[in-house]
Amino acid sequence: MRMIHRIALILVIIGAINWGLIGFFQYDLVAAIFGGQGSVVSRVIYSLVGISGLICVSLLFAPMRKEVHEENRQSTGNFNYATEFGEETDLSKLKKD
After folding, report:
1. Are 49 and 11 a contacting pair, CB within 8 Å?
2. Per-residue model confidence as pLDDT tens for the chain (97 residues)
3. Is the pTM for the entire model greater than 0.70?
4. Which structural domain, as residue segments, surrounds residue 57?
5. Residue 32 lies in a domain
């Protein structure tokens, strides 16, 4: 994961905690720390959290890492090469011309 995604994810988590505090206790932690919702610093933090949310949307559509696919492939161990449609024809019994 790139560093920008990590920073964005941390800011989204901070925003989620703040929204949880607002929802459960009607307490805005960011506004309390930085001087109200109208202060410049609070508005910058709200803006950064919003932009981070947009960046994290790209994580939903990012492909899984290659290591995860290899772990899943190794864990199966038993491969079944049988066909669904019946037995294969024995080519050794064909006439040779």
Report:
1. yes
2. 689 989 999 999 999 999 999 999 999 999 999 988 889 999 999 999 999 999 999 888 888 766 544 555 555 566 666 666 666 666 777 776 5
3. no
4. 3-63
5. yes
